[in-house]
C-alpha cells in the first residue's frame, strides 16, 4: 500500500495497519479532524495518537487489536503459581512452568517479538515523548527494563524457534508453552482448543512501581489527499466508521476478532462483554499503548537491533540504548522537519 | 560479440580490403543491430534507465517518494559509511565470502571428480546432486527454518542431536555459540554445490583421456594426475566458477532474509544482516529510497573491485 501511494493510481480511500507520519509530510494524506470531531471523545487516546501528526488526525481507527499475555489456568495451578503480577514473578513462573517438552513462555519465534516495547512501557519508560519528536527510550528506567530480555533468555524458559510467530496461537494451542503473548484475534481459536482453561493478563509491571502494559494496534481508514474526490471520500469514511455502529460491530467480530475502536460501540458488542474477551477490552482501555506516528521501520530496526545485542550479552544496556536513541533521533528529525 | 569481431575490420582503412568483403560486413552489422536491438532496448529501458534514476536518487533525500528534487549531495553515502550497522554488514559479508567461496569451490570440485570417477549410476548421482539447484531459496529457507532447524525438541536437527544426548537448541536465535551459521552455510551449500558441480563435470569431460593414459604410463599416481593434469586443465572452468560463487556470496540475501524474517517486525531482530538485507530494510521497509540507492552503488563498487582484482590474480579471460 505504501508503494502504491507513490503512483498516480493510488485509491481514494484505503486501510492501513502501519500509519506513517512521513506520508503526511509528503502531502499524501488528507486531515480528517472535521469528520472525527463529533465523536472524538469516543476514541481511546492510543487510537488517536498513532494517526496524529502535529495536532491533526489523519486516520479514523476502524478496529483495535489488543495484544496481551495468555496463560493456561490448569498448568499454572498445577505448578503452584498464580498469574504473574511483576516481571520477577513472570520469570519465576516461566521457569516453574518449563517441564519436559514444554516451555514456560512464548514471546515470538525470534525470542524477541514486541517485548522491547512492553519492557519499556511496564517500567514507566517510552519510545518517544508525548509530542512524538524526541526519542526517550534510553532513560534510566528504559535501560533497566530492556535488560529484562536477557534475564528471560538466560532462564531457558523461553520458547524460541517455534514454527509460527507470536501472532499465531499454535504454540499455545499445541501445548508447547504455558503462557504466550498474542492478540485478541487469536482468542476464538484458543477458546476452541482450551475451552475455559485460559485467561489473559497484561504484561506485568517491571518493578513494583511500574505499570502493567498491553499493546493496542489495529487498522485505520485514510483518505488520499491527491485523490480525485477527496470530499466524497471523507464523507464515506465518516458515514461508515463514525456513524454505522452495526456495520462496525459486524466487521469487527464476524470475520475475525477485534474491538470496535469506538468505546460506545465496543460496549454494545455482545461477544466482548463476558469472559477473557471482556478482560482484554478492559486491559486495553486501562493499560493500552500504541506506537507514535513517527515510529517507523527505521526506528524499529535500530531499537530492535540494540535490544538483540543487549539480550545476547554483546553490549551494555545503557550505552547501547543511548547510541540507538541518537540514531533514532536523527530519523525522527528527518520526519518532522 | 561475434559481430563486433566481424565488424572491426570495417573500421580499419578499407584500402587493404576487397569491396565484396565490405558488403558482407555491412550486412553483418545490420543483422547485429536487428538481432540485438530488442535486448538492448529492453535492457536500456528496464535496467539502465532505472539504474541511472537510482543513481540520481542516491544524491537526494527521497523518503516515501521516488522523485528527485531534495538534493543532499553525498549525505546518503556519508550516512551509510558512518553507520556502524552498515559497516558491520559489509564486514560480515566479507568474512562470509572468505569462508563460503573456498568451501563451495572445494565441495563442488570434489563432488565432480568423485562422480566423474564412478562407473555405474553416474547419471543418477549427477541428477541427485543437481536437483537442489532447482529449489528456490525461499522454499529451502522455510524448510531449513521450520523442519530441519526449528527450536522444538521434535525438530529434525534437535531429534538427531537428542540421539547423542544433546539438549534441544534454538538454532536461529542462539548467539553463544552462533549456531545460525550452521543453518546458513548448510543451506547455501545444499542449494549451490550441484550447479557448480555440473560446470566442473563439463570441464572434466573435456579433458582428453590420453593425457591420463600417458601419465599412467609414465607412472604418475592419481594424486599427481589430479595436480598436474586435472587442475591445470580445469583452469578456465575454475576461474569462471570462482567468479560466480564470489558474486553470489556478496549478493547473499534470500536465505538471510527468509531465515530471520518474523513477519511481524521483518528482519529487525536478525542476529546478522548482510548489506542487501540492510538495504532492503531501508529502501523497501522504510521507503528511504535515497539511502537504499546509495548503498546499492557502494555495494556494486565493492563487487566490481573485488571481481576485477580476482580476475587479475587468477587470470580471467587470459589466453592459454
Describe the structure.
The complex is a heterodimer of chains A (337) and B (320). Chain A is of the alpha+beta class. Chain A has 2 domains: 137 residues, D-Maltodextrin-Binding Protein, domain 2, CATH 3.40.190.10; 191 residues, D-Maltodextrin-Binding Protein, domain 2, CATH 3.40.190.10. In chain A, 42% of the residues lie in helices and 14% in strands. In chain A, helix 14 packs antiparallel against helix 15. Chain B is mainly α and 320 residues long. Chain B folds into 2 domains: 56 residues; 240 residues, Orthogonal Bundle (MetI-like fold). Chain B has 14 helices and no strands. Chain B is globular and about 75 Å long. The N terminus of chain B is likely disordered. Chains A and B meet through helix 1, helix 14 and helix 15 of A and helix 13 of B.
List keywords for this structure.
heterodimer; A: 337 residues; alpha+beta; D-Maltodextrin-Binding Protein, domain 2; 2 domains; eight-stranded mixed beta sheet; two-stranded antiparallel sheet; B: 320 residues; mainly alpha; MetI-like fold; globular; disordered N terminus
What is the highest CATH level, the class of the largest domain in chain A? Alpha Beta
Radius of gyration of chain A: 20 Å
Low-pLDDT segments, ≥5 res of chain B:
1-12
In CATH, the homologous superfamily of the largest domain in chain A goes by the name Periplasmic binding protein-like II
Total number of beta strands of chain B = 0
What are the secondary-structure elements of chain A, in order, as H or E?
EHHHEEEHHEHHHEHEEHHEHHEHH
Mean pLDDT of chain B: 88
CATH topology of the largest domain in chain A: D-Maltodextrin-Binding Protein, domain 2
The CATH class of the largest domain in chain B is Mainly Alpha
Count of discrete domains of chain A: 2
Strand count, sense and barrel status of the largest sheet of chain A are: 8 strands, mixed
**Helix share of residues of chain B?**
over 70%
User: What is the residue-mean pLDDT of chain A, rounded to a whole number?
Assistant: 92
Task: State the shape of chain B.
Answer: globular
Structural class of chain A: alpha+beta
Query: Assembly type of the shown chains?
Result: heterodimer
Total strands of chain A: the figure is 10
Structural class of chain B: mainly alpha
